[in-house]
Write a structure and sequence with these properties.
Layout: E1 12-15, H1 23-29, E2 34-38, H2 41-45, H3 48-57, E3 62-66, H4 75-88, E4 93-98, H5 100-114, H6 119-122, E5 140-144, E6 156-161, E7 166-171, E8 179-182, H7 192-210, H8 234-256, H9 261-281, H10 285-295, H11 314-320, H12 322-329, H13 334-344, H14 356-368, H15 384-392, H16 395-398, H17 407-416
Parallel strand pairs: 1-8, 2-3, 2-4, 4-5, 5-8
Antiparallel strand pairs: 6-7
Length: about 425
């Protein structure tokens, strides 16, 4: 039997300028009196975490700041955060203030504060053990300061597994934040390079969920077999379409002028909407390919990010193979690919072919300063086999692709993505 049921979940949401000033009240309503506030050094330097922590005190909530999050977290950096939280607890709730790195670290911290075992036990198979949490987690409030990851809405925690040179994740409904507080004012300090890379993550979330395999194409599941990524469905489609439409009018403007409050607000809303979509439908090939690209970063140092070590930001890594991935998936759902292209660029025709969405994407990427392909961040043809090997480990994502994907297919996508434009 084929599937007839889809699932949908999302955290409670508070959105708007100044929303973060109400966190103390929100936490007091959850019964919290002592919380750990998880952030990174860069976000801490803006003063926002300290201000938020002070405001919590006005409602009788004691916030202790941990600012040791590693940008693009690793299993080692997450374990250090977990160890710190265990040593300085107990806690009534966890609050993440920052980008996806901070929110994902807070998810891992929350998981291991409340459940037994080691971090790798919970990482998705075949990288880790794929274990599911058995105990309830603490309330988690996510406060994004970047417009991109959608981590404030999702059940997923992403990390680099250093020994295997690959990114992977932990995915379970209990990781979803209790409350997402999206305050566009907190994104005003986001550098242009971060806005561009994180914004491509928003766009690919929306595009991948919109073009994902339909939920009705899967075999029927028993209740205990249901997973957060259930395939494209009417509710997720609605959020994806709205997200793409917002990006069409705000993305270039936000990168060009970070003080454009209207563009910043639209980007924050697009990120939220995309998260509410892909957090249920799922993502597919571009995200699967991104994990080995980011996990094997060598010498590339992107603008706007810490330059202490090589880094290919997640959203940038996702975007680099997206044009060729969507060219590959076009035949599975031509109408959806063309509709997505038209939402992003209303000037394109609906009767065009497989080059339409890739063309719209590469034009946008060029305009906002994304590197011109996988070779531009330090890889060459000799790396294709290793990149394919890493992508094939992301079976949770590839299962949502709208058509079957072989190692040969992935090799072709990587090879054609080495240089996207001259």
């Amino acid at each position: 039997m084929t599937e007839t049921v889809f699932t949908y979940g999302t955290p409670a949401l508070k959105f708007g300028d100044g929303a973060s000033a109400e966190l103390g009240y929100d936490l007091s309503m959850l019964g919290a009196r002592r919380v750990v506030l998880v952030t990174d050094a860069g976000v801490a330097a803006t003063g926002a975490p300290a201000r938020i922590a002070k405001q919590m005190g006005e409602f009788g909530v004691d916030a202790v700041v941990f600012d040791g999050v590693h940008v693009e977290p690793t299993d080692a950096s997450m374990q250090a955060a977990i160890d710190w939280a265990r040593a300085h607890g107990p806690w009534d709730a966890v609050v993440a203030v920052g980008g996806g790195s901070c929110i994902d670290t807070a998810k891992a911290m929350n998981l291991l504060l409340t459940n037994p075992g080691e971090l790798i036990d919970y990482v998705n198979q075949p990288v880790g053990g794929g274990r599911a949490p058995t105990q309830p987690l603490l309330p988690l409030v996510a406060v994004p300061t970047t417009t991109g990851t959608g981590a404030e809405s999702t059940t997923v925690c992403i990390l680099d597994v250093l020994a295997q040179h690959v990114k992977s994740g932990i995915s379970h409904a209990r990781l979803r934040p209790t409350l997402a507080v999206v305050d566009p004012e907190l994104t005003m300090t986001q550098p242009a390079g971060v806005t561009a890379a994180a914004g491509m993550d928003i766009l690919c979330h929306a595009l991948e969920s919109y073009t994902a395999r339909p939920y009705t194409s899967f075999d029927r599941k028993r209740p205990e077999q249901r997973v957060p990524y259930c395939g494209a469905n009417p509710v997720a489609d609605m959020w994806a379409e709205r997200s793409i439409g917002l990006l069409a009018t705000s993305f270039r403007a936000a990168v060009a002028d970070g003080t454009d409050r209207a563009a910043r607000g639209a980007m924050a809303m697009a990120a939220t909407f995309a998260g509410m979509g892909f957090g249920n439908a799922g993502v597919h090939i571009p995200h699967a390919n991104a994990y080995p690209i980011a996990g094997r970063a060598r010498s590339f140092r992107p603008s706007g990010y810490p330059d202490a070590e090589p880094l290919v930001p997640h959203g940038m890594a996702v975007s680099l193979t997206a044009p060729e991935a969507f060219r590959f998936t076009f035949d599975a759902a031509p109408d959806r690919h063309l509709r997505a292209a038209q939402l992003l660029d209303p000037s394109v025709g609906r009767d065009d072919g497989p080059d339409t969405l890739p063309g719209v994407l590469t034009a946008l990427m060029r305009d906002i300063g994304i590197p011109a392909g996988v070779a531009a961040v330090g890889f060459d043809e000799g790396d294709v086999d290793d990149l394919v090997e890493g992508a094939l480990k992301q079976q949770r994502l590839l299962a949502t692709a709208p058509r079957p994907v072989t190692a040969e297919d992935l090799a072709g996508i990587f090879a054609r993505s080495m240089t996207l434009w001259e």
